[in-house]
Amino acid sequence: MKTSNSTFCEKYQNMGSSFWIMYGCLILFVLLLMTASIFGQSNQGKQIGVGLYSQVSADGYGLTNLPTVYIRNKQEVLFAGIALQKCLHTPSGIKIGYSYTVNNPYDQYGFARTSEFYFYADLGYNLRAKMGDATLRDEYTADAQAAEINVSSLRFNSVEGYAGFGVRRIFLKHFSWDTSLGFGGYYSLDFPDKFRLYYSQASLGLQLRTGITYTLSR
Predict the structure, then answer these.
(1) What is the DSSP string of 74-138?
(2) What are residue 154's phi and psi, to 5 degrees?
(3) Could you give the number of structural domains in the chain?
(4) pLDDT, tens digit, for every residue of 60-84?
C-alpha cells in the first residue's frame, strides 16, 4: 500500500521530469532557430512550421505522440519535438532529426508540388518512459513474477536512433500529411538488472510515424 509521502514523492519526480523535458524542448527549438543559419543567409525558401505525429518504434513504449517544430530551407528540414505517452499528458522524452527531400519540392514553374519523397535520420532521448501496453502484456505472459514486482511502475531512461524514408502529401496549401518508416534501435541506460525481465535492454527494429504538419508560410 502506498503512503501519502511516497505518492507525493512520485508526483514531485514526475513534475520534475516534465519540467526538464519541456526545458530541453525549448532549448532544442532555440538551437533550431540558430542552426537555421547553416542553410544560408538568404531567407528565400525558408519556412517554419509545426506538426503533431503519432509513432511506434522498437523501444517498447507503445504509441507515442510527438508535437514538433521544424525549420525548412528548400529540400532540407531540421525538426525537434517532445515525446508524450498516454495520449498527451505524460512527457517522456525529446527527439531531433534531419530530413532531405529527394525530389525538388517546386516544379519548373516555381509552384509547390503536392507530393514529396524524403530520407531522414533522427535521435531521441527518453526520460522516465513507461512500458507500453503491448510490452506489459508480453511481460506478464512471459513471467508470473512480473505481477509481483509491478513492472508497470518501472521507468526507463534510454537513447534511440532511426533512419529511413517517408512521403509528404501537401493539401490545403499549408498542411501536409507526413508518413515515414525507419530502421534503428534503442539502448536503455539504467536497465533494472535485478529483475528478470522479458523486455530487453537494447533492441533493433522499425519505427513507423505519421502525422499532420502546418507550414506557417509557403
Answers:
(1) TTEEEEEEEEEETTTTEEEEEEEEEEEESS-SB-TTSPBPSEEEEEEEEEEEEEEEPPPHHHHHH
(2) -70, 145
(3) 1
(4) 999 999 999 998 888 899 999 989 8
Q: What is the DSSP letter of 58?
A: T
- In whole angstroms, what is the distance from residue 93 CA to residue 22 CA? 9
Distance CA 48, CA 169 (A): 17
pTM: 0.77
**CB-count burial class (<10 Å; 0-12, 13-18, 19+) for 35:** middle
Task: Give 143-186 pLDDT, tens digit per residue.
Answer: 766 666 778 888 899 999 999 999 999 888 889 999 999 999 99
Domain with 148 in it: what CATH number? 2.40.160.20
Burial letters for 50-82: b for 16+ Cβ neighbours within 10 Å, e otherwise? ebebebbbbbbbbebbbebbbbbbbbebbbbbb
Return the C-alpha cell found at 202. 537494447
Grid cell at residue 7: 505518492
Question: Residue 165's domain spans which residues?
Answer: 4-215
Q: Mean pLDDT across the chain, nearest whole number?
A: 79
Q: Quick one: pLDDT band at residue 125, thresholds 50, 70, 90?
A: very high
